[in-house]
Amino acid sequence: MQSFRAEAGFLASLDKACRDFMNRNKATGTSSSKSPELLAKHADGMLRKSNKTTEEAGLEDALNQIMIVFKYIEDKDVFQKFYSKMLARRLVHFTSASDDAEASMISKLKEACGFEYTNKLQRMFTDMGLSKELNDSFKESQQNNETSSDLDFYVLVLANGFWPLTGPSTEFIIPTELLEMYKRFERYYQGKHSGRKLNWLWQLSKNDVKTNYLSQKLIFQTSTYQTSVLLQFNSSESLTEEDLAKGTGLNEATLKPILGLFVKLKVMLREGDAYSLNKDFKSKKMRINLNLQTKTEQKTESSEVMKTVDEDRKMLLQATIVRIMKARKQLRHAQLIRRLCSKCNPASNPRFPTSRRPSIICWTRSTSSA
Q1: Which residue ranges does the record assign to the Cullin family profile domain (predicted)?
Q2: What Cα–Cα distance (Å) separates residue 155 from each residue in 10, 128, 289?
């Protein structure tokens, strides 16, 4: 390799070979979107608290190696979508190895792809800082409240449009144990920001639930939906799925996986249609994470991300075509494609249609309605 460093032709061929291998290999098959997904997952693993490469220097080296591979990834917009989703999860669940490492990675991506590529990632960090200030202020305001609560209540207020998060897919009845603090925070926030509306993403929130029914004192780490299900057993020994749905407001698609997981982990027992808490449950750990993502949920998330990528690419192409045709009025198909290639951000790696008719229909329809 040292002998060929000055050979531009050799280095160009080596780069092309690396790019082909990185994007099309045994692990990815023919899909060029698999490599960016796998690289984003690897980066997620390196940036989590559970990562064994905890020393700052070692982690920085690992991030540099990720960027070397990133250089050869074709579908950089796919990487951005998956990375954004995983960054959001790390921040929301406070599982980042360090803020410095997260900031370093965003800086590297910005240097490689520009400000627009990392704008939303940077805004996520801003929201986390603002949320901390808001919670500190809220807690201070509650210190003089005569009906103070022992509940440790922390709210992340995130700007809509910058986070890759979706609203709840089910109705939800807020548990009595959380309702008072929920109302207090709503009043406090509206007092500071009149006219703003908070949309609560209960499916992303989590709780620590202390058990009082076991021989050992355990703490279950749960989602708020899971917490709501467990709290139903404060007033009844045995409940059916219908009873739990009525008490929590959760739909069948949300409730069934929760019950299935609880039974699988032996936190609950099922006899016929009835569910009950397993009072013989034991664990070597005092804190037990029940808020686990299933393989089905992981596959669904992956397909949803790719759907978003396709929609973004389509919108990008249509908007670019409109701008070009407004300026040029008339172009041949080949000329339009060349201009599209020069105008579109390389990070988005848009797929241009090979047929002329869809392109003509696309810009004709777009320009006529603009």
Answers
A1: 34-263
A2: 55, 10, 20
